Amino acid sequence: MTPMRVTDPHDWGALLRLIRAEFASMEGRINPPSSTRQLTEADLASKARGGEVWVLGAPPRACVVLTVQSDVLYIGKLAVDRAFRGQGLDHVLINVALKVAQKRKLPYLELETRVELVENQAIFRAMGFTEVRRSAHPGFDLPTSITFRRPVN
């Protein structure tokens, strides 16, 4: 599958369904709940205007949202359809992020995952990301999220 940057107009509903379906496995495992509960089609369109949204396949089988945050390219809502896992689609999208960061002369990719999602942590470490900090959502005393970074070069 070839990565495609999507912009308005787009079938944001199909993309939202993919994200919600693939983040659903977090329900009951993470606290606080995932922000995907509040995510809307309008939010995705806004993210495409303020950053970049990339998909693989039509209908989308994998996606990522890329946003510049100070000196990093932030990777958000990375999702791969369960039926297409193990095919390296996550690596394809991380490579897209690397190219975007290089083009924008940003030194790092950055992403977050929840403390409870040890399988995601292992995947990100295997892709060259290292833990740089832990943080707590508002109202929590203990860390709930882990931030990972990867150098672009």
Feature tags:
153 residues; 4 helices; alpha+beta; seven-stranded mixed beta sheet; single chain; 7 strands; 30% helix; globular
Write down the secondary-structure element order: EHHEEEHEHEE
Which runs of at least 5 residues are low in confidence (pLDDT < 50)?
none
The largest sheet is: 7 strands, mixed
Mass-distribution shape: globular
User: Which structural class should the secondary elements be placed in?
Assistant: alpha+beta
User: Total helix count?
Assistant: 4
Tell me roughly what share of residues is in helical segments. 25-40%
Mean pLDDT: 96
Order of strands, main sheet, comes to: 1-2-3-4-5-7-6
In total, how many beta strands? 7
Rg, Å, rounded: 15 Å
Strand content: 25-35%
Give the distance, in angstroms, between the N- and C-terminal Cα atoms: 25 Å
Structure write-up:
The protein has 153 residues and is an alpha+beta fold. It has four helices and seven strands; from the N terminus they run βααβββαβαββ. The protein has helices at 12-23, 41-50, 89-103, 118-126; strands at 3-6, 52-56, 62-69, 72-80, 108-114, 130-135, 145-151. The longest helix has 15 residues, at 89-103.
Summarize the structure.
The chain is built from 4 helices and 7 strands, in the order βααβββαβαββ. The protein has 153 residues and is of the alpha+beta class.
